[in-house]
Write a structure and sequence with these properties.
single chain; mainly alpha; about 0% strand
């Protein structure tokens, strides 16, 4: 700048106005070019910063979605195991005389248990509220992530199963399998000397419509849950793969 200053003074002192004008224009252009280069460097720096933030966000989202898949697998396994136990319990009705009533009641508790899927959406919810979802440069991927969580959070099958268990299955369970000396015994209470409740009639269960209604509701609702979970799992794995591809591009 000192050199430029001396040159400018020399041109002015020599009354070389035309040369000075050209010099001034060149100096302005030089300043403009410098500013543009600085802005370009700043933009590149900001772009790299956003890509790092995008990679961190996608990694966290991928981890949460992987947890969703693990939860679905665990829920599915437990639900199928539960239905298997109930099926084995029902098969005991073929030989009612050999059934241990207390064990039958204890094992029938599977009727009042269910599994429910709750998406791990903490990272997604925070990213949406803070506006960080805009860091995801791939618009298609961003939309697919939104679609996945919108779909995963609305689980009507789980809510239906919960209502069926609470409002229909549990009352039938208490009435048909638990309201007897064996049911109280499973809670550590001996009421045989103080109650006139009849012992559980295993044979009568074979023609008890309420018992079969309870079985139908439990198997139907739980199997619908499993089918729904598998749909969510499939979408989750697809989004996982898309995220992994985007992370690879960012890493390259």
């Amino acid at each position: 700048m000192k050199v430029f200053g001396l040159l400018r003074q020399k041109l002015l002192s020599e009354n070389k106005f035309k040369s000075y004008t050209l010099y001034a224009i060149g100096e302005i252009l030089l300043v403009v070019v410098g500013i543009l280069i600085a802005l370009q460097i700043d933009n590149q720096s900001e772009y790299k910063k956003e890509r790092k933030q995008e990679a961190a966000l996608l990694t966290n989202l991928k981890n949460d979605i992987a947890l969703d898949v693990k939860q679905i697998d665990a829920n599915t396994e437990e639900t199928i195991l539960r239905l298997g136990k109930l099926d084995s319990l029902v098969q005991l009705l073929q030989t009612p005389d050999n059934v241990d009533k207390k064990s039958f009641v204890q094992e029938s508790f599977e009727f009042v248990f269910d599994n429910y899927f709750r998406s791990n959406s903490g990272v997604f919810d925070e990213a949406v509220s803070s506006g960080r979802m805009s860091y995801i440069e791939n618009e298609t991927l961003r939309q697919n992530i939104f679609d996945y969580y919108r779909n995963a959070k609305v689980n009507e099958n789980d809510e239906t199963s919960r209502q069926l268990t609470d409002e229909l299955i549990t009352p039938i369970f208490v009435e048909t399998l638990y309201l007897n000396p064996q049911g109280f015994s499973s809670l550590g209470l001996n009421i045989e000397k103080v109650s006139t409740l009849k012992s559980l009639d295993i044979v009568a269960l074979k023609s008890n419509k309420e018992f079969w209604k309870m079985l139908l509701l439990k198997f139907g609702s739980n199997r619908e849950q499993v089918l729904r979970w598998q749909e969510i799992k499939k979408k989750a794995q697809e989004v996982e793969e898309e995220i992994q591809l985007q992370l690879k591009k960012l890493d390259d």
